[in-house]
Design a protein that fits this description.
Elements (H helix, E strand, L loop, with lengths): L4 E7 L15 E2 L2 E2 H10 L2 E9 L1 H11 L8 E5 L7 H10 L6 E6 L7 H9 L7 E4 L2 E8 L3 H9 L5 H6 L3 E4 L4 H6 L8 H15 L1
Parallel strand pairs: 1-4, 1-6, 4-5, 7-9
Antiparallel strand pairs: 2-3, 6-8, 7-8
Helix pairs in contact: 3-5
Length: 208
């Protein structure tokens, strides 16, 4: 198990338009996906920040997390640029973190955190890049808090494409993996109802 990080951020509060319901509240093994993810993150980071989008979404997420034994270590960040997508969530979360350093950032539709993948991300810090991410997964990544100024500029310019923002940074990209390796290392995205059902079916098969 890698050493604990100081901070992690969950990007929640999106529109979930392809899923048709809030992805953070999908039920997996009897609990909301967000709660499952936060439990995993609490094992590898001292503090978990939920970038919740709006205050209404923050209240919903707080309700499903409030009885966790480490709930006092969970914080929330509301978008300072409402309605501007995941970059706004990343900006909100990082702006609430007071100390400098790397932050583990994950999207709320990724239900599994892999210690082995996290270790690969941590190993990528050599040389001090702004971001280390698995190829094709810019929100399963380590971001340095120093990216705040670039984020702010992108949001003010309404340049909201994630990869355009990444292109402004000094990046370290982990090499691609096979589909089977993605499953094994926690790179399953639940974007649609089909993705969700396939993930549940895979869990049932693996547990049988």
């Amino acid at each position: 198990m890698p050493d604990k990080l100081r901070n992690s951020i969950v990007l929640a509060g999106g529109r979930s338009s392809r899923m048709g319901q809030d992805k953070a509240l999908l039920i997996i093994e009897g609990e909301p996906l967000l709660r499952r993810l936060v439990r995993q993150l609490s094992e590898i980071s001292e503090r978990v920040m939920i970038a919740s989008g709006s205050e209404a979404q923050m209240d919903r997420y707080r309700a499903v997390l409030q009885d966790l034994p480490f709930a006092t270590d969970i914080q929330f960040a509301v978008d300072r640029y409402p309605g501007e997508g995941p970059l706004a969530g990343l900006h909100a979360g990082i702006c609430e973190i007071r100390e400098e350093g790397y932050v583990l950032v994950t999207a709320c539709d990724m239900p599994d955190i892999s210690p082995s993948l996290l270790q690969r991300l941590l190993d990528g810090r050599t040389g001090g890049p702004d971001v280390i991410y698995a190829q094709g997964q810019p929100f399963h990544a380590l971001y340095h808090t120093s990216v705040t100024a670039v984020l702010e500029e992108a949001l003010q310019q309404r340049s909201l494409r994630v990869m355009d923002f990444i292109g402004r940074l000094n990046s370290s990209v982990l090499p691609p993996e096979s589909d089977s390796a993605k499953i094994a290392t926690g790179l399953s995205n639940l974007n649609t109802q089909e993705d969700y059902q396939n993930y549940l079916n895979r869990m049932r098969r693996d547990g049988s």
